[in-house]
């Protein structure tokens, strides 16, 4: 390697080492081995700044929001609404009233299905999804289709785990009312051409929801540039806490939609004869929300705002390439999902070793991976496997984590093959 290459490599390692230092959970041993955390697609670790923000709120500012004139309630309200403003700016919504706090991507999609779907769908209408969807972007649409008489249509995927675009354009018709598609597949890592999907869907008058749970940790999202109608994301995938998520929706659509749940905060007036609804975003936030979770999400957004995503993309692409090369050397390995455009997710099988056995063996080497169907059973059906092992990488991982995974997989091969 040239001197310039050595300098660049050293600088990249120093940058990742600094990022790793921000995440306290990474600095521990599991079964006497240093932790290699390769399960960020399930739940990313939190930086110390997020933990500190949540602890500080609990210690000094715990109170309910919007309902009190006392100082603690004012502080809590400012922190809660401040987090909403951060999210709005981060994804470039046209205003913070387009940001609805939910429990996560799953609830965000359920909200749209139950509210917008119920309002929009009629017998004979169609909802278009894909074979690579997480169950959270299949089941809510099945439920609302059963209620309304609409039909769920699934776009197939190819042998590489990419969306069959020819089939998409064939199945997208004037009967399509809603297109619900994952931005980045959790099981395959495939990055979908969502800009093209949105443009095509809008031409036939369909509304588009993007499941962005796996996209937001890896790339900057601009909902206005995408022109999506709804975008759903989860805090815990995005280096924030569990139990908090976001639904972005275009203001005109949210204004027209009926409330998802009833109760406090989402009302303007209540009598026994009639109830009127509060303005956005309160109309969709019935009851006491996860205030501390919102504070943590706001801190996570602050953390992400300080990151050079071009640098992260280069690092994660290098890591994915290295991991693909290392795992491909293993006898009996089968990589599941080899799309040209991929996020840093690597799903695989090893011989006839069950995925759960693989996960157990590599855990003994200090490596955390995910095993199972990844809430994407149609993907498993497509590839003819009951389950896969999945290593997912984030900005805090390095090649040493990959090497540790390979050591664990070699150990599994020795035991079972």
Description:
The protein folds into 2 domains: 51-305, Aspartate Aminotransferase, domain 2; 308-416, Alpha-Beta Complex (Aspartate Aminotransferase, domain 1), CATH 3.90.1150. 42% of the residues lie in helices and 17% in strands. The chain has a 7-stranded mixed beta sheet, sandwiched between helices. It has a 4-stranded antiparallel beta sheet with strand order 13-14-17-16, with helices on one face. α4 (105-120) runs parallel beside α5 and α12 (355-364) crosses α14. The chain has 14 helices and 17 strands. A hairpin with an 8-residue loop joins β13 and β14. The model is unreliable at 1-13 (pLDDT under 50). By secondary structure, it is of the alpha/beta class.
Features:
disordered N terminus; alpha/beta; four-stranded antiparallel beta sheet; Aspartate Aminotransferase, domain 2; 42% helix; 417 residues; Aspartate Aminotransferase, domain 1; 17 strands; seven-stranded mixed beta sheet
